[in-house]
Every structure is written in structure tokens, then in C-alpha cells.
Amino acid sequence: MSSAPFTHRVLPYDGMDDYLAGAVPFLRAGVEAGDRVLAVTPLASRMLLRDALGTDTAAEIGFTDSAGWFAHPSRTLSDCLCEADAPAWNGRRLRLLAEPAWAARRPLEVLEWQRVEALVNIAFTGTGAAILCAYARTLPPGVIAASRRTHPEIVKGGAALANPLYTDPWAYSTQCDSAPLPAPPPGAETLPLDLPDLYWLRQYVADFARRTPLPHDDLQRLLVAVTEIVTNATRHGRPPIVLTMWADPEDRSLVCQVADGGRWPPGADLGLIPPRPGGPGRFGLWAVRLLCSGVQIRTGDRGTTVRLRLRLPDPADGAAPAATATTVNTA
């Protein structure tokens, strides 16, 4: 743990001069303090930052491209938390300038990245990390509005000010799950799991997945994830337990849903925060989030639904189109 206070600030900017006025002092201060300084930006920003900082200062900073860094919400959160782990870097504070990649993201992805921005405020408590997230004012209004709710401080004119719109991270995360899940499409395959045999369950899931262009490695991840979720439903849920699968062409994903009649207690751990060594947390659900492209959970009086999503290759990249979901008789 670091003795320095953890900070998570948003830098809204109108143009590159505005951007540099906030980003350059932040990075330069980190280099001067001996911090471990990282800048996760697109290429254009990176080039401007190098010129503004000068060769010697820029050489002390680790530059990474936004597109690669912001590839998966849970994995990025976990990797970034490892970077902030002070013992791994002889106590050097992590100072991170981040420009999240929002272009071409589907609505579910945007929602999960916004949730991560909120949960950073919990996951990084005690690390001493300093994180500055840059948001261009040309981004979609919803993205800008969410940034004001997920950062405790806002940078204006080079000064950090308390953000009056900041929302409690757990409350924000709960709001992300407030909308009911859309019903499975007509023709989705459904399999009741009265006494699930995990071997045959995995065979069933694999047979369906092989009718889609899901890559082999992703299929193996799906099998591990669905085994974990069905096991949880069997041990902690209530019948009926039902598996439903379909291909979602709009989201370009294979969907595997497990529903049961049980209800999770208020405040239940949804596996949203990386478990820390010796700390609380359910590694099973966290691991499922790492394995899947997306995980949606809803629980209430009518039962609990866990919806797993695995990204299918884009047909524009030459992959075959996903198979259309069809009804099968599972009696």
C-alpha cells in the first residue's frame, strides 16, 4: 500500500491546447517525483505529448496505444491494478494519463467501460495511484455525462476541483444493471437443467457454438465460464434452472444464458472488482468476467439470470456469418 492519496480525475478538453495544458503538467510532475508514469493515448495525442514534453522527459514515460489497452473492461482493470501495486515497483507510485477508446463501441461495451470508470474508485483505494482521464468534449453527450459521475475530481485551468456530480461507485454500478434484460429471440435454443450433467452440458454448448464462427480458444473460455455459472446455480439457486443459447447478430456475439428461480441477497458480490490477495471477493464470478466478452446479471423476485457473451468475428473480416438460432426438442 502507498502512503500517497489515490486520485482519479477527469480532464474535459475542447481542443489540443486545452488537452496539453492539463496533461503535460500531470505527466511532468510524475517524472519529477520519480513516479512510474504511463500515458495511454491515441497516436496523434502521443506525438503531441512527446513534442510538448521534450525528448528527455518523454523518454521517462511509458507510452501505450489506447486501442490495445482498452480492449476488455475486466482485463484492463486487472492489468492496471497490477501496475499500481506498489510492492511490484519498489513503492513507486503509478501515475496514469488515460484516454479511453470510445469509437465504434457497441452500447453494452460503452456501459461496461463507464462502470469500470466508477469502480476504479473502489478497486484502487490504498494504492496511491494518480489517474487522469482525458475526455474530448466532442465525444457523445452520454459519454461526457457519465464521466462527470465517475470521477471524484475535475481538472479545470490546471487546478483539481471537487466534482459536485460525482456518484457513489456502487450506486452507479447498480444503475448500470437497472434495465431489464431483453427477452431471448424467437427460436433461441432452450435446455432445462433439472439434474445437470456437466459433461453433457459442455457437449451441448460446444455443439451449438460450433455452428457459429466462434474461435476455438473462445469456445474453451465459454465452456469454463458456463460450467462455473451452472455450478453456482445448482449449489446456490433454486429450480428451475434453464440454459438458453442464441447468436446475436446486432451485438455480433454468441449468448449463453443461465436462469434459475433463486434470488441473490442485496449487496451480493457480482465479481466486479478484482480479488486482492488475502481480501474478500468471489474469484469464480471475477474469472467468468475475464473469460467472456461481457457478463450481464439480473436478480429479483422472479429469479436470477446470468447472460454470458462471447464476441463473434466481424463478417467484414472474412468470417462466415453466425448461425441463426433454431429450436430443438430437448425432452
TrEMBL record:
<feature type="domain" description="Histidine kinase/HSP90-like ATPase">
    <location>
        <begin position="194"/>
        <end position="309"/>
    </location>
</feature>
<dbReference type="InterPro" id="IPR050267">
    <property type="entry name" value="Anti-sigma-factor_SerPK"/>
</dbReference>
<dbReference type="Pfam" id="PF14417">
    <property type="entry name" value="MEDS"/>
</dbReference>
<keyword id="KW-0418">Kinase</keyword>
<feature type="domain" description="MEDS">
    <location>
        <begin position="7"/>
        <end position="152"/>
    </location>
</feature>
<dbReference type="GO" id="GO:0016301">
    <property type="term" value="F:kinase activity"/>
</dbReference>
<keyword id="KW-0723">Serine/threonine-protein kinase</keyword>
<dbReference type="InterPro" id="IPR036890">
    <property type="entry name" value="HATPase_C_sf"/>
</dbReference>
<keyword id="KW-0808">Transferase</keyword>
<dbReference type="InterPro" id="IPR025847">
    <property type="entry name" value="MEDS_domain"/>
</dbReference>
<dbReference type="InterPro" id="IPR003594">
    <property type="entry name" value="HATPase_dom"/>
</dbReference>
<dbReference type="InterPro" id="IPR047718">
    <property type="entry name" value="RsbA-like_anti_sig"/>
</dbReference>
<protein>
    <submittedName>
        <fullName>Sensor histidine kinase</fullName>
    </submittedName>
</protein>
<dbReference type="Pfam" id="PF13581">
    <property type="entry name" value="HATPase_c_2"/>
</dbReference>
